Amino acid sequence: MSFTLTSVVDDRLRLEWHALAEDVGTRFASRPSYGLSWHRHLGRGPLRVATVHRDGRLVALAPLHQRRRLGVRVFRLLGHGLGTVGEALAVDDEAMRDLVVGLGTAGGVLELTHLPASSPLLAAILAQGSWRASFTPDDHCPVIDLPEGVRATDLRGRSTLSRAASTRRKLAREGKELRIETVRTREEFDARWPDIVATAASAQSDRGDDRLNLCAPPHDAFTREFLRQEAENGHLLLWGGTFGGDWGSHFATLRTGSTAELWFTRFDPAHGRARPGHLLIESICDHHDDVGVTEVDLLIGRSGYKKDWQTREYPVGTLVAIPAGNRTARARMAAADRAVSLLRSLAARIAPR
User: Fold this and answer.
1) How open is the CA angle 33-75-70, to the nearest 5 degrees?
2) Torsional class of 175: left (φ above 0), alpha (ψ -120 to 50), beta (otherwise)
3) Which residues, listed in sequence order, are joined to residue 116 by a DSSP beta bridge?
4) Nearest Cα to Cα of residue 265 among 249, 279, 278, 281
């Protein structure tokens, strides 16, 4: 076994990483298409990709980058700050343990946000006596379970679906008939990218929508590069709604096996009264068998429309793990946390009401 913490991902490692993610990955955020695109366009701090090779074969990987907090080296997941659920990759428990032991020798603190409470990486670190670790649950991810044969009628009441049907009939009478299409190939994505950007911009201009727009600068180059790669690799599954032939809503997911993870969703406020988000989800529930999806992970955050459709949810949180013998890092991380808490308190006091 050999452990390496590298700042350069060459073609060989990228292909090994891709193969490992295809074999054992459960999250789009653990694929090189996501992590390397994010780091190239938005990352701050050097790459620190942790790898374990066994007899020359890549068996574990943690997609990390390095920052500093009060002089302490801190390792964070690639894509930090974008609200994606992360993971480390490992072919078995032994490989995960070797990865955790190796990270303990790297001389840095792990600060990993949005890890599932069921994360094998979290379990391996908590089981190791060489770390002083804490895990703080801080959010939830709603999920729609869609076993084969399940339809929207199995998830929502008759009155709700009747109202949706009435909305579709009204749109048709007004010449704005709703049609749902899927975008899966690179060619389809390239053709629809201007529409996706325009719809996101319209949503952003709507008063009260302060969500991060991943389709506008400085994030758009990253988003486009990542989604094009996902399309090329067969993972892109983006549902779009057209109103009278004009694109007006979308629900962008990335597939891993039979799970589709939501990354972002937007609709043109001009169609807001039609509740396009609900109409898109209804269509997904009715046609998931056609695309081999049995689970839609709605990712970070609860909301009204998610609550209406979800069948369950799971907790995610932040892991902070410090090598047990590094007392300086513990003291400085505690001081940094106090400073951040103070700054947030001051910001809240001076914010306009």
Assistant:
1) 140
2) left
3) 316
4) 249
CB 261 within 8 A of CB 253: yes
Q: Which residues of 45-78 are buried (b: 16+ CB within 10 A; e: fewer)?
A: bebbbbbbbeeeebbbbbbbbbbebeebebbbbb
Helix, strand, or coil (residue 160) = helix
* Long-range interactions of 37-43: CB distance < 8 A, separation 24+: 37/222, 37/225, 37/226, 37/229, 38/78, 38/79, 38/82, 38/222, 38/226, 39/65, 39/78, 40/222, 40/225, 41/218, 41/219, 41/221, 41/222, 41/225, 42/218, 42/219, 42/222, 43/78
In the prediction, which pLDDT does 165 show? Answer: 93
In 3D space, the residue among 309, 258, 320 whose CA is nearest the CA of residue 283 turns out to be: 309
Q: What is the DSSP letter of 47?
A: B
What pLDDT is attached to residue 334? 57
Helix axes 32-41, 220-232, angle to 10 degrees: 160
| pLDDT at residue 328 in the model | 59
Q: Residue 100 CB: number of other CB atoms within 10 A?
A: 28
303: left (phi over 0), alpha (psi -120 to 50) or beta: beta
What pLDDT is recorded for position 344?
59
Ranges of the chain whose pLDDT falls below 70: 206-208, 325-349, 351-353
Q: What is the pLDDT of residue 141?
A: 97
Q: Answer for the pair 321, 131: CB distance below 8 angstroms, yes or no.
A: yes
**Segment (H or E) for 100:** helix 93-104
**Structure-block tokens of residue 147:** 């076993």
Q: Which pLDDT score is estimated for 331?
A: 53
What residues are paired with 96 via a beta bridge? none
Pairing mode, strands 312-323 and 109-116: antiparallel
Phi, psi of 155 (to 5 degrees): -110, -30
Q: For residue 30, what pLDDT is reported?
A: 97
Q: Which residues of 223-236 are buried (b: 16+ CB within 10 A; e: fewer)?
A: bbbbbbbbbebebb
Asked if residue 31 lies in contact with residue 254, where contact means CB atoms within 8 angstroms, the answer is: no
Rounded to two decimals, what is the model's pTM?
0.90
The Cα–Cα gap between 307 and 305 comes to: 5
